[in-house]
Amino acid sequence: MNVVFLHAHDAGKYAEPYGFPFDNPNLMAFAREGVLFRKAFAVSPTCGPSRAAMMTGQYPHQNGVVGLPGQQGWRIDDYGKHLARRLGEAGYETVLAGVQHEVEHADISPLGYERMLDTEAPAREKAGEFYPETIDKVEAFLATRKRLGDGRPFFLSIGIDEPHRDNIPRPELNLHGASDRFSKTRHYDPEKLDWRYTAPPPWLPDLPELRKDMESFREGVKLMDEYMGRVLYALEHAGLDDETLVVVTSDHGIEFPGGKKTLRDQGNQVMLILRGPSGGPIRGGKVVEPMVTHLDLYPTLCELLGLEAPHRLEGRSLLPLIEGRAASLHEATFSEQTYHGELEPLRAVRTERYKYVRRHLEDGPRMRHDGPATAAMEAAGWYGRETGREELFDLYLDPWEACNRIHDPALAKVRDALRTRLDEWMEATDDFFPSGAFPETPSGEL
Q1: What are the two backbone dihedrals, phi and then psi, of residue 216, each rounded to the nearest 5 degrees?
Q2: Residue 185 — left, alpha, or beta (φ > 0 → left; ψ -120 to 50 → alpha)?
Q3: How far is the C-alpha of 71 from the C-alpha of 69, rounded, in Å?
Q4: Is residue 87 part of a domain?
Q5: Which of 11, 244, 346, 439 would you label with 426, given CA atoms 20 to 30 Å apart?
Q6: Are 190 and 181 in contact (CB under 8 A)?
Q7: Would you place residue 443 in the very low, low, confident or very high pLDDT band (cuts 50, 70, 90)?
Q8: Which pLDDT band, with edges at 50, 70 and 90, does 148 fall under?
Q9: What is the pTM of this model?
Q10: Nearest CA-CA partner of 260 in 304, 217, 289, 223
Q11: Parallel, antiparallel, or unpaired for β 272-275 and 244-250?
């Protein structure tokens, strides 16, 4: 079985298959053919830690990537843990196209991919980034692949930058790097979008600048859907549909205040949709309700591909849920943040109904967000509020996590149970958080 891993950048779960008013015909068609997970979570709300966790099956504090791999220099402690390395050893042709965030761009060879399409003619200077022609190269790769009876199976990782904000200047595309667009590969003018009838992110106030920014996000998600649709079309027309598992997800939540760079659900909840070969269990427009995490992808692939799963993996195979052999996989899920530029350490445990968050600092959020929405919310006092070091939310009565119930006597038993559960998880995974001694950034830069 081939594996195509399609991962977006900063998309969260804000797409049409999750009920949002976006125009995503390709993702909708894909969801109706596959299996959609309603409550899927990243284990970290920032790029490098989230993706390194997906690709190693371990939490960031276990694999070493607790901040950005680029300027800050965080690295996986053993690149032999990487999924591409494992599949390469199993005989797969391993191919990278577009974004990765598991190693700095100067040298991505430690990841172990056999081919990196963006370095092939016409070559780009930097591999591991997404370019307008990345999808062209993916289409060409798929069009020339042989069926499994004639060639090796492949693992193709396709990292799409949309709907990440345009925070890096690309003058050749008329993208100036001001983070006011949600595309790194396509120029559009936010002023020409009609945002008058758009709702802001539902946990933020209904202000014109937020509606305008959200309409721009919708444009980025539309472009993401277009790129993903081209990959799915190429798979179909190459005759590879019935021998390929396709995984569609995002690294973490969306780049708005209260989303990315926080342990709120809006920072960690992601789309996760799988589609396998016809006649197999990962087909049929199924919707799975219980909580799952990105850490479950590695063991799922091992089970599907008949590979021995490394003992170090922290997740569990999704197949029992998909096949109806299990009612749930996790009583609780865990998430963490340490660095993204500056230091703002957080840890959290989430059950179906409650979330308990522990902070190293007594105020937050500290990490600012890119884009126009941040200025509006900064003026409103969003950042640097006195939060205390513990937060407890009832996600049924307070889904936007606005009311901290940590001192509510009615939830004292819930609070104490979640405190204990988080302590036990940190001890079992050898987390440095309880000590308060956080590793220094390898580069010495924030």
Answers
A1: -65, -40
A2: alpha
A3: 7
A4: yes
A5: 11
A6: yes
A7: confident
A8: confident
A9: 0.97
A10: 217
A11: antiparallel
